[in-house]
Specification:
7 helices, alpha+beta, binds adenosine-5'-diphosphate
Length: 145
């Protein structure tokens, strides 16, 4: 099995609902290792880059506003096959379609904002993980444990 590192963002809904500890505990219960963690405000520029694949969608301005409601917490987490395992643990984008036991199923918005207020971002593949780790962490902020 390949040890990988993925980039996770605790989104403003996780911060506002005081769910950061509960969600982090779920990642740690999987045996994943924290390589870096920090709180940061996301600029328009950074969000345009991070969400370039949805930048032309009509809902993008709402997503940008949501991601700027509070600072986010960026987490670099490593483990065997972690990229797909964290995506499975998160569940699908729409929290109302996410099964109980997944993070979005348990904690995501179940009302009108279920597609947007979905607790965490996580890299969706190795190339995205590499680019996103560089985007959110500077050299010297990631540790080898
Ligand atoms: P994921 O985060 O599950 O990989 P996407 O990359 O497709 O999903 O979308 C990025 C983020 O944009 C989602 O996590 C969600 O916060 C928001 N989003 C996606 N689709 C919608 C939508 N139809 N309406 C509102 N927000 C959306």
């Amino acid at each position: 099995m390949a040890t990988e590192t993925t980039l996770i963002l605790f989104k403003p809904d996780a911060v506002q609902k005081n769910l950061v500890g509960a969600v982090l505990a779920r990642y740690q219960a999987e045996g994943f290792t924290i390589r870096g963690i920090k709180m940061m405000s996301l600029s328009d520029e950074l969000l345009a880059e991070h969400y370039s694949h949805i930048a032309e969608m009509p809902f993008f301005p709402s997503v940008r506003g949501f991601m700027q409601e509070t600072p986010v917490i960026a987490l670099a987490l490593s483990g065997d096959n972690i990229i797909s395992r964290v995506r499975d643990l998160l569940g699908p984008t729409d929290s109302t379609e996410a099964a109980p036991g997944t993070l979005r199923g348990d904690y995501g918005d179940k009302t009108g904002d279920s597609k947007m207020r979905n607790i965490c971002h996580a890299s969706d593949g190795p190339e995205a993980a590499e680019a996103e780790l560089k985007r959110f962490f500077n050299e010297g902020e990631l540790f080898d444990l």
